[in-house]
Model the fold of this input.
Amino acid sequence: MTSRNEELFQRAQRHIPAGVNSPVRAFRAVGGTPPFCERASGAHLWDADGKRYIDYLGSWGPMLAGHTHPAVVEAVQAAAARALSFGAPTEAEVEMAELLCRLVPSLEMVRLVSSGTEATMTALRLARGHTGRSVVVKFEGCYHGHADALLVKAGSGALTFGNPSSAGVPAETAAHTLVLDYNDAAGARALFAQRGAEIAGVIVEPVAGNMNLVLPVPGFLEALRELCTRHGAVLILDEVMTGFRVALGGAQARFGIRPDLTTLGKVIGGGLPVAAVGGRREIMQKIAPLGPVYQAGTLSGNPVAVAAGLATLKLVDTPGFQERVEATTRSLVEGLAAEAKGAGVTFSAQSIGSMFGVYFRATPPKSFAEVMQCDRERFSRFFHEMLARGVYLAPSAYEAGFVSAAHGAREVEETLAAAREAFRRV
Ligand code: KE4
Done:
């Protein structure tokens, strides 16, 4: 009997490319039919066939407070009843800017936008406008959204499709983007020694989450900070994913790095479209209409989306919140590693804050090259064994997983019980 998911997937593909509105959702990395989601609550989501899953995707990061948290839903309903959009300034945007600048100390000013891609695209333009230089540096396996200048050996979706750079990006554009190896401080030093005077900015995920989870090795972020300072380049920490997940003040708080610009997204919208670019006042004052770097957006700072973000951040900024969700995430990865060991499967896992990575490799990868050594076929089999048992992991060996405040001991126990069986079948 054809499931509703399969029916909907067939129907969707008639009018939507691959049936999805973002590539990774099509399950091409793991195969099979993606569940069409109907509703979610707390740590769970339900698909069109009424099947319940423990959700470790969390909409790719935003749902840190858990799905449909009453305080967030109530704030959205109240905001929507007042207005869906003005295209004019609102007090809520001022409150959001003040809150972000309090929680992330490197932010002196911030501009709200509607997606992480807009935030990183704007950060690059600001770096170029501020320095008058054209070259930008990124790292292989990192993904910063789909702006032309950043689709050069991007990670995430593009990596999953084995398509290290995208069609439609002019060679002239890609030529201004230099790609280094993540965690390779020596390579960064060599590049700056050679071309430091040309470099407008360096953009990096301070904890990489788009080639699966890869942690910065000691000294890597510090080297980027020192090199950018010495050569007058702008250091951009892309915290769209790590913001409020690695720590309340972002990975920059955890690792003690003060960037010149930061990009945020996901959690700050609580599931609705809010992202931000912010940082040093001297640079942010270059943005229109104050300065010559143009940027704009019809729905930037949308009142309903900002209401969801504010309500989420207020839940996240409470005593013990980060510690609790970090402890749950740690118990998950420790349990998974123990189950794999019990089944004699070559596997490793790690977590930082409420993000985690699982790898069919003996030890967690420290670089893009080591990520590529992971057994992705075995991951795909594991993914489907877990999905069949009601556990929804990220549908790609090159993505991180996410735990919410709504996940607890019961969800971890159910997940480990599913893994106990799954590891014996992969
Ligand atoms: P969006 O344009 O998708 O809102 O954000 C782009 C982006 C920027 N920077 C980082 C560090 C990101 O992780 C992202 C988006 N992350 C992916 C997950 N790998 C979004 C999922 C998707 O593409 O559907």
About this structure: Residues 154-164 have pLDDT under 50 and may be disordered.
